Amino acid sequence: MTAKQRNVRKAKADTREYAKVKQVMVEAAVELMAGEGFRKFRFEQLAERVGYNRATIYRYFDSKRDLTSAVMMALMQEITADIIRQTAGNHVTRESFTESLYQIVIKLRTHPRYAIVMDAHNIETFARLSREYFSDITTRMLEKFLVADSAQPMLKPGLNMHETVDWLMHQIISYGFLGIPGDDPQQQKSYLNKMVVSVILD
Questions:
Q1: Distances (CA, A) of 33 to 66, 100, 121, 150, 169
Q2: Residues 25-37: pLDDT tens digits?
Q3: Phi then psi for 200, rounded to 5 degrees?
Q4: How far is CA 6 from CA 11, 18, 130, 178, in A?
Q5: Which of 47, 48, 99, 177 has its CA 20 to 30 A from that of 41?
Q6: Are residues 57 and 91 in the same domain?
Q7: Cα–Cα distance between 6 and 124 in angstroms, integer?
Q8: In this structure, are 57 and 70 located in the same domain?
Q9: Are both 28 and 93 inside the same structural domain?
Q10: CA atoms within 13 A on the CB side of 12
Q11: What is the mean pLDDT of the chain?
Q12: Which of 26, 44, 61 is the last residue of a domain?
């Protein structure tokens, strides 16, 4: 047994070390899937990349589907973290809110790193996970946008935060796969702005 294999067994009793090794595997899987494509990805490739055998990989991930979920969660967390940094300390306007939704869609559709998220084979997993991670950032932004002040926009009558976020996420998922209507960024952002206006009352 190599020193690395002994460290893996020890990691089971050390949550922090276990999580660290798992994160290394997830990041390596992201790179492999981005380069080779999701459908060509194999656990053997990951084992070779991180220096563990295949059996060790299965100690961290029960299946390719389990690993795929971890990869997709990591990628979605990256996107939301970027948006949180961009909006931190700023008052969210309708324009900045629309811009953030636009950036989510564009990253999903154009960045090779996120190709796995847009693979049709993963649509159900993506839809499930996106409601947890993308809805989190959308909820935060809406809460900043919908300031309890009569001069600020509010949700239209009959809508609540949960329903609004759920609907917005459904739209973003659709646009992620199909694209935003419009021939250029300006038209696409205008379309998204109309979507936002449909749930926000001036």
A1: 14, 26, 13, 49, 25
A2: 999 998 888 887 7
A3: -110, 135
A4: 9, 12, 36, 47
A5: 177
A6: no
A7: 37
A8: no
A9: no
A10: 8
A11: 78
A12: 61
40 DSSP 8-state letter: G
Residue 13 CB neighbour total at 10 angstroms: 8
> What residue has token string 């702005």?
193
Intra-chain end-to-end CA distance of the chain, in Å:
66
Q: Examine the fold and report which residue of 34, 61, 88 is the final residue of a domain before the chain moves on.
A: 61
Name the domain count of the chain.
Answer: 2
| Per-residue CA distances from 1 to 6, 8, 53 (Å) | 7, 11, 11
Tell me how far apart the alpha carbons of residues 81 and 199 are, in angstroms, rounded to a whole number. Answer: 25
Q: pTM above the 0.70 mark?
A: no
Residues 188, 177: Cα–Cα separation, whole Å: 15
- Domain that residue 131 falls in: 66-201
Is residue 54 located within the same domain as residue 126?
Answer: no
The one-letter amino acid at 77:
Q
Exposure string of 14-52, with b = 16+ CB inside 10 Å and e = fewer, is eeeebeebbeebbebbbebbbeeebeebebebbbeebeb
For residues 43 and 78, membership in a common domain is answered with no
Residues of 85-111 as b/e, b for ≥16 C-beta within 10 angstroms?
A: eebeeeebeeebbbbbbbebbbbbbee
